[in-house]
Specification:
This protein is an all-alpha fold and 316 residues long. The longest helix is centred in the first third of the chain and has 32 residues.
């Protein structure tokens, strides 16, 4: 039991930090621009494939630096020549634009790299066991992912709350006219914000690619849960996204490890449910089987009882 708790906690924290690496960029974009970017997970996928391609040409470490920069520059161009022109038409137009962009990116990735998984491997420098927990060897690469995620949170939080640039960026969202009158180029601020957000998503892709499967549907696999993290944490709240990422990572990881059903619980207290019992099939569904939907149940509860999220400043 102790092994289950320790290993599941470690796995949950690491999965949560991967979610935060992705959610941080989306939160950054929303807090600065008020835009929910449906194509955000697609930039995460682009980061993984750019990192894979660059690692074949220059090695993993140059790819780790160059891929987020390239994808961030691509994101800035998308904002400048695409999103900016639909922004004036409201949020529905923005959502439709980013939703369509996600399909375009997926098709382009399939045309270039195909539908089969890419052979994106962990760098040799980090391909060893950092420590052993009971009988489980824990890879050093996962510890590297954890440190990167924590570092991103600290840097982003410091920039947004402790620097002049962060204050200008936050002011540009609520009072763009006033910020422009003070001599700041608000459209450029928004372009850089969108580029930084997509660059963070690409960084998550470069890091997660070797640990997970780098393939053309990876955006669809993590995209939906990404919005759960942002809404549960609170739209526009970086600290909320951090807490929600850890919460969802731990909940889902522990749920996957628990092969227990309500029928087992009833049996432990002396209540036997036969095959002809009322809703017999439902009582025998295990927690592990419903683990994929638990984050979405948490989302529904959050929208019912606290629409602003954990630390949000506006309704979801």
């Amino acid at each position: 039991m102790l092994e289950l708790i320790v290993v599941s906690t470690l796995n949950g924290v690491l999965f949560g930090m991967l979610l935060f690496l992705m959610a941080s960029g989306l939160t950054l974009i929303f807090s600065m621009m008020g835009v929910l970017n449906f194509a955000h997970a697609s930039f995460y996928m682009l980061g993984a494939f750019f990192g894979f391609q660059l690692s074949r040409w220059t090695g993993f470490w140059p790819g780790l630096v160059l891929a987020p920069l390239l994808v961030g520059a691509l994101g800035a161009l998308v904002e400048r020549y695409g999103l900016r022109h639909v922004h004036r038409h409201g949020h529905v137009a923005e959502l439709l634009f980013t939703f369509g962009l996600a399909y375009v990116v997926e098709e382009v990735v399939q045309m270039i790299w195909g539908k089969l998984p890419a052979d994106y491997r962990v760098p040799e420098a980090l391909d060893f066991a950092a420590f052993t927990v009971f009988s489980t060897n824990y890879p050093a690469y996962k510890m590297f992912m954890l440190l990167i995620a924590i570092g991103i949170f600290v840097v982003l939080f410091a920039v947004l709350t402790r620097t002049r640039a962060g204050l200008i960026i936050q002011a540009a969202l609520s009072r763009p006219d006033m910020v422009a009158m003070l001599g700041h180029n608000v459209p450029r601020v928004f372009m850089l914000a969108f580029g930084c957000g997509t660059g963070l998503a690409a960084l998550a892709g470069v890091i997660a690619g070797p640990a997970l499967v780098t393939q053309s549907n990876m955006a669809a696999l993590l995209g939906p849960i990404l919005f759960v993290v942002v809404v549960v944490g609170g739209l526009g709240s970086l600290a909320g996204a951090f807490i929600a990422s850890l919460l969802i990572g731990l909940v889902q990881t522990f749920a996957v490890a628990l092969d227990v059903s309500l029928a087992d619980v009833f049996g432990a207290v002396g209540i036997t449910l036969g095959p002809d019992s009322f809703l017999a099939d439902i009582w025998r569904v295990t927690i592990a089987q419903v683990a994929p939907i638990l984050p979405y149940l948490l989302l529904v509860l959050m929208l019912i009882f606290r629409p602003r999220g954990l630390l949000g400043t506006r309704d979801s």
